[in-house]
């Protein structure tokens, strides 16, 4: 997913991709398990100095509302749109599981940060890239990603 400020351009394709992935996997008899890499922002935004509980039915409705409040033309922090895409895509996956009851096992992981070697140097698609850019290039443009 490219980080975008436009919810219509970013969220809908992420949801469609998630549904396509799990429904296609469910149709393939040789696939027994699949894993969806979500994000911790799908269930909660960081709230410093606040204690709160997260459960299996907890979703980050706050960030979803913020992302869609920007639609259709306003430009806002990409973090809202990214978080909403992860939250809504994962909700659709679990809705699929409840309704379709596939025989394969579907799991999700919700990391806060993913670091590591990029699988393709053509796609700048890891949360570790901004950290590397700060260190290697002094590029602090990642700050633009976050709301003020």
Can you walk through the features of this model?
The protein is mainly alpha-helical. Helices cover 43% and strands 7% of the residues. The protein has helices at residues 7-27, 61-69, 78-100, 128-137; strands at residues 33-37, 105-109. It has a two-stranded parallel sheet. Helix 1 (7-27) runs parallel beside helix 3 and helix 2 (61-69) packs across helix 3. The two termini are 23 Å apart. The model has no long low-confidence stretch (mean pLDDT 84).
Mean pLDDT: 84
The SSE order reads HEHHEH
Summarize the biggest pleated sheet.
Answer: 2 strands, parallel
Cα-atom radius of gyration: 16 Å
User: How much helical structure, as a percent, in the residues?
Assistant: 40-55%
Spatially, the strands of the biggest sheet line up as 1-2
Which structural class best describes the helix and strand composition? mainly alpha
Q: Which consecutive residue ranges, at least 5 long each, have pLDDT under 50?
A: none
**DSSP strand content:** 5-15%
Number of strands: 2
Tell me the overall shape.
Answer: globular
Distance between the termini: 23 Å
Number of helices: 4
- In terms of quaternary structure, the protein is single chain
């Amino acid at each position: 997913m490219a980080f975008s400020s436009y919810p219509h351009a970013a969220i809908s394709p992420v949801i469609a991709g998630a549904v396509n992935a799990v429904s296609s996997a469910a149709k393939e008899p040789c696939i027994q398990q699949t894993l969806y890499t979500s994000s911790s922002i799908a269930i909660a935004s960081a709230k410093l100095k606040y204690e709160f509980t997260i459960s299996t039915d907890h979703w980050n409705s706050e960030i979803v509302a913020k992302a869609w409040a920007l639609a259709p033309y306003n430009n806002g922090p990409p973090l809202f749109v990214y978080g909403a895409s992860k939250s809504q895509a994962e909700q659709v996956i679990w809705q699929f599981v409840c309704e379709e009851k596939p025989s394969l096992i579907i799991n999700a992981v919700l990391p806060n940060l993913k670091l590591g070697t990029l699988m393709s140097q053509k796609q700048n698609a890891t949360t570790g890239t901004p950290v590397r850019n700060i260190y290697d290039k002094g590029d602090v443009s990642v700050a633009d990603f976050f709301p003020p």
